[in-house]
Amino acid sequence: MSEQRDVIALSTINRRAFLRGGGIGAGALVIAASLPGMLLPTDALADGPPPGAAPPPPQLGFGAMIAIARDGVVSFICPSSEMGQGTQETLARYVGEELDCDYARLKVLLPWADPLFVNPMMRRQMTANSATTVGYFTALRKAAAASRMLLVQVAAQRLGVAEGELTTANGVVRHAASGRSIGYGDLAEAAAKLPVPAQVPLRPASAWTIIGGSTPRKDLAAKVRGSAEFGIDVVRPGMLIGALALGPHPRAKVQATNLDKVRTMPGVTAIVPVEAGYAVLSPRFWQAKKAAEALELKVLSSPTAGLDDKGIDAAMERAFASVPPMEFPDFDFATMRPKEKRADRAAITAALAGAAKRVEATYDVPYVAHATMEPLTCSAHFADGQLTVRGPLQSPEAVRTELSQVLNIPFDKVRVEVTYLGGGFGRKWGVDFPVPAAQAAIATPGRWVKLIWTREQDIAMDQFRPAYRVRQTAGIGADGRLQVMHSRIAGQSINTYHHRKSPPGIADPTAAGMLIYGCYGIPQSLIEYHETKDLSVPVGFWRSVSASQNTFFAEAFLDEVARAAGKDPLAYRRAMLAGEPRILRVLDKAADMIGWSKPKPRGTGHGIAITYNEGHVCAEAVRVRVVKGKLTIEKIVAAFDCGPMIDPKGVESQISGGIVFGLQAAIWGEIPFAEGRPNVANFGEFRMPLLADIPPIEVALMPSGERPGNAGEAGTPPIAAALVNAIADAGGPRIRRLPIARMLEI
Amino acid sequence: MAEIKLTVNGAQRVVDSDADTPLLWALRDDLGLVGTKFGCGAGLCGACTVHVEGQAVRSCQFPVSDAAGKAVTTIEGLAPSADQPHAVQAAWVAQQVPQCGYCQPGMIMAVAALLKETPHPTEQAIREGITNICRCGTYPRVVAAVQQAAKALAG
């Protein structure tokens, strides 16, 4: 899309929507960017405007909004969900950079589901895939720049001077020659009536002052005071709070056998059948919870009835033996399509048979939970046919569609509002948990209802990162080079569980994507996926999705290959990355930070691993000691490039936090199954790292280029591979099955 | 249900609750103080940490009846006012500790209590004394923030 084609349009609907959702005074200048070429699919628009709003003009496409009130205060509805990744600060910087408002006073507001807020890149209003920073990069800056241009136009008329003589800063238009100035608040109403300029130039990266700065995130003040509204904090007069009694699986059917008795328990207002169980409603959660625990449930059916770890293991083997594999071709990130080149299985088999040396290994990862600190929760209200849902949602648009379809309520009668998220990591992408809240609200019309899952229920009802087993075979040439690789993965398909389609003709990318890294330029490679179609464990997107397990498989096995070839694992990677300067730079930095080439004492080991996609490169290296089966992690380092960094302190925290998230899965994370349900209760079993467990973590930021990439998921994938590689280097066992705590004392 | 009188953030409050109600839920559902968070309900994560008579307690494991007649401080009452943050809150913003922020009120309350007891904690004492779970993994910034707060409190 060329910049010349971008048009900024001011539209009535945007303003009305803004006024309704944001509590902005009348007369505000409200701008929305409409970008031809990034139009919403027509079916999304066909669903109609939000309740009470005028129909959108047909060209309406994108409208994350900025409003300037008469008092000069600038408000910005951040269209994506803030779940810790710092999206409010990142996107606010786009606005501040081009608007020249008083950035310290810029207010950020929470969004609701609205076609106005779609991410131009994903064409959905969804906070996932690390797509916020890059998705809104151009459009939001243009909206802000257009606003500034209009304010300057009005100021020029009022002051009777040429626009070129005016400057803007801190929410004021200034005429230096005469010393006169006018605040944005006095200009906004007139500016709102002007046509939006067709050409909106943007400042070059070299001129940025707010982008790339180090001001503290705008959400922090409320978060340290305890006043940020998370989903669990939604409070409305007369609200009922619901605890749940649930079956063993989110799609289980259950029947309560003692409803009448429990209904008489203290504080119980109502008991409502919901998905997979019952919601017990009371003005107080504690009374609701006691009653929910007293409900006796008969399980009528459950998709995982009788399942245990042996059954999961057997399903993996059945898939390898009898489910025909789907191929996952090398992927082109520029077009988000598989590359044309297809592997020739016969040639792969022949090359492996003819290799000077073959390396084979089987790797495993278990199911793992998201375990966001805020357990699942959602609030809802239903009256006069209108449903309003408010909660910690990564996918407000999909939730709106789901509620409309499942509950048979017209789309324009469903309003979905987003609070702060007490962690998301992909779990709150799900559309499952708002449904029972809405069901409970419909059963008690006119009263707000808030459902809260207990920690135990949050874990048991998770959509887990699937367990996978991988069989990898590598062929090494006489020169020691990796010539051919064949990797077969078995496990559940996330797309299948969610009734989503995978790209036609190829394996589900969420299972098989990047199981063999394209960056290494291995002459022949083949990825195959054997779906375990007879497993129905609830599965979903877990921070970094396929990279979370496939980076472990790919980068740990590559270490084995390097050692089998008699090569240093770093040197082996470097030799294969000659044509990848961006990756090489980051890899070398991490190696340097850990002191790769320096001599180390016996029992000490170094490990390194990389992950990359179109928006980032991350290398992590670890130093460990392994003595008599006891593992000590001495240091973790990361080098990271995600293009220009909008909020470098925020990027750093995403990488170090992502490492901690990955460490949990690598060392302790495991959801075993027994008797048809997850055999884990709380944080006692699903062990979390504490402050005392965390080794020193150093992150080197290595910005590059002019277009931002993504950071939210990059820190998590490499750590498990770096860790097991370091353990092997230290003389410990070669760990091919996570979590590590099964093998070593920590 | 029984009437339980307690002092919360300096004000006399009456809670009409089951005696076994955890202080956490009395604060949230009866008094509307939702800054204190529910994380695990088992005393494992510390998201619900408040002060009772100046001591950090995990309020999900502390019956409200045990707080009768006592002084409770929650995250809402830690600082005298919004524009005068407690030293720990100020350090938390300066070091940019929070990510999602959900566990942070509990961690801040735990740190404030730690610093009251041990005004100059060693790094080791901080690492062992703060046992709150943070899923975002904000830990790498916590030690520096605690040290900054300790310095500020020492004046």
From TrEMBL, chain A:
SUPFAM superfamilies: CO dehydrogenase molybdoprotein N-domain-like, Molybdenum cofactor-binding domain. Residues 225-303 form the Aldehyde oxidase/xanthine dehydrogenase a/b hammerhead domain. The keyword Calcium does not apply. The chain crosses the membrane at residues 21-40. Pfam families: MoCoBD_1 (PF02738), MoCoBD_2 (PF20256). Keywords: Membrane, Transmembrane, Transmembrane helix. PANTHER family: ALDEHYDE DEHYDROGENASE, BLL3820 PROTEIN. This is Molybdopterin-dependent oxidoreductase.
TrEMBL record, chain B:
The keyword Repressor does not apply. It comes from the Bacteria. Residues 2-78 form the 2Fe-2S ferredoxin-type domain. PROSITE patterns: 2FE2S_FER_1, 2FE2S_FER_2. The keyword Transcription regulation does not apply. Keywords: 2Fe-2S, Iron, Iron-sulfur, Metal-binding, Oxidoreductase. This is 2Fe-2S iron-sulfur cluster binding domain-containing protein. It comes from Novosphingobium ovatum.
